[in-house]
Amino acid sequence: MYEPPRTVPTRRRGSHRLTSAPAQSSPGQSAPAHEPPATGRAHQLAGHLAALVAATESLRTTVTGDTAADAAQRAELDAALAELRDRLTELGPVGAPSPPGGLVPAATPAERHDRAHALAGRLLVVAAAQQDTTTAMLACRRMDAHAAARTASA
User: Fold this and answer.
1) Cβ–Cβ < 8 Å for 92, 132
2) At 83, which helix (H) or strand (E)?
3) What is the DSSP string of 50-63?
4) Burial label, 49 (beta-carbon count in 10 A; 0-12, 13-18, 19+)
5) Burial letters 108-145, b for 16+ CB under 10 A, else e
6) pLDDT (tens digit, 9 = 90+) per residue, 116-151?
7) pTM of the model
8) How far is CA 54 from CA 30, 108, 119, in A?
9) 85-94 contacts: CB < 8 A, separation 24 or more?
């Protein structure tokens, strides 16, 4: 019967971990110029925040009544706008991108709340993917507020 040869390892090898080192260019070449991924992600987050600011401003302009409910809604939207703008400036040197253009404005306040709710949902997804808890919590609060306002106006 065949028996495989028995060999004894002479030394034990440690685990080989691959580490990534930054690519080095030769003295005659320049390193490729591209922005780091963090900056691109911050731009993406800032873009979603800017879109939500634009939708919230659009909602704020539609509240024109003098009732107590309208005054409360205006105050809530003003506070939300301040919070959203503060978060946008906290993103640092990225700056605030211009709001998206070419979007068809919603006709009724309920449709505007639906649109703002959807934008806050997208912001939540992006913030969660980037592990930005502060922005994710802000997006959740805005989603709740727009869902409640949509229910009240329906």
Assistant:
1) no
2) helix 68-90
3) HHHHHHHHHHHHH-
4) buried
5) ebeebbbbbbebbbebbebbeeeebeebbebbbebbeb
6) 999 999 999 999 999 999 999 999 999 999 999 888
7) 0.68
8) 41, 16, 10
9) 85/53, 87/49, 87/134, 87/135, 87/138, 88/46, 88/49, 88/50, 88/53, 90/134, 91/42, 91/45, 91/46, 91/49, 92/42, 94/39, 94/42, 94/43, 94/46
- Phi/psi for 92 (5° steps) reads 90, -145
22: tokens are 């930054």
Side chain identity, residue 109: P
